[in-house]
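In this supplementary section we document a worked example of the pipeline. Step one takes a protein sequence of length 381 as its only input; no multiple sequence alignment statistics are reported here. Step two produces a three-dimensional model, which step three serialises into structure tokens for compact storage. The input and output of this example are shown verbatim.
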Amino acid sequence: MGDLGNLTTMELDALADADGGLNLTDGHARLHLSPEQTAIVERIPQMFAEASRRPFPEVEREAHTAFLNAIGQHSAPIGTGRILSCYSSTLAMDIVARALPAGARIAVLHPTFDNIADLFVTRGLSLQPMSESELMAQQWPGAPVRAIVVTHPNNPTGLVTPEGHLRSLAAHAVQHGQTVIVDASFRGQVRDAQYDTCAVLESAAADWIVIEDTGKLWPTHELKIGLLAYSERTKIPIERAFSESLLSASPVVLLLVAALAGDWASGGYERARDHVARNRAVVRDAVSELGMTLADPASQISVARIELPASGPESTLLYKDMVARGVHVLPCAPFHWADPDSGLRFVRISLARPFAAVERAARTLVQSYSELSALTSMPAK
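The serialised model returned by step three reads:
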């Protein structure tokens, strides 16, 4: 396969491309602001003044209320002190990893974004993969697993954990003394994922942790927050781990999030959904010329996996060739963190980009794969 580094390394390479190559790697929203969003961003100077005069807890509660209500999380513990505002969802996950007992065995969804596994391993935890098929069959891991991590919707496949399945997982976790950890970083993009997760977990009296993210929704150049919420019954020292990492998120960013969440709830979601659907269609149509298909046709999140034919170049070679052509996408082997070879026939392309960029990337992928296939099929001299 060749060592290309982890997914974030490849995303950083795309951001730092001095030649200005197209970056369709990370799942962040890198779009033009809508007129409605532009009007909100133009108010940032006022938000600075507002942040200076208002108490931080008041600003934080307002942002939590606006954002969580906009994505259906009406039972989240707003105002209890059990929702912590972080700079990013990655930092929130690292705080959780540091708070879990050292050496504990953790079940993590497979495939999923590799930094979840990386963070846990770095913090001295032992990992056990849990496949999407096991999740859908409600085959939950037992002892010695201490916590079960579900990405909802999953990145890169877009799989949504059905409400009944989460209810089953919560009941299982209570019976086996486990913590349920839900990474819901892409939840805001998918209505089906916006059932009230905290209500489901609380009804089972489960020990739970839920991470939300605003960075996948709006093109705000990393002005975002990750929310780390947890149950009253958890014994994991989350607040201590949080205090070792940061003081607080910016109140200005919290005010920005509150305003953008208001727009999301009043038409912004539909505009973004239609844009992503249009971009997904242009990718699907372009790759169909080579007989390739989208691996997850029902996915609604702002990334798409393309399944490569069983014969022909693998995704690692395709990735390198596309970078040489000025287009960055992600090979999917690192998503399969416990079995990288199972991801070699997939690439992932971000759809939260301007239409012209996605269309060009799709055409480049088709050209790159066609030419690589011709080279690899030529008889040796």
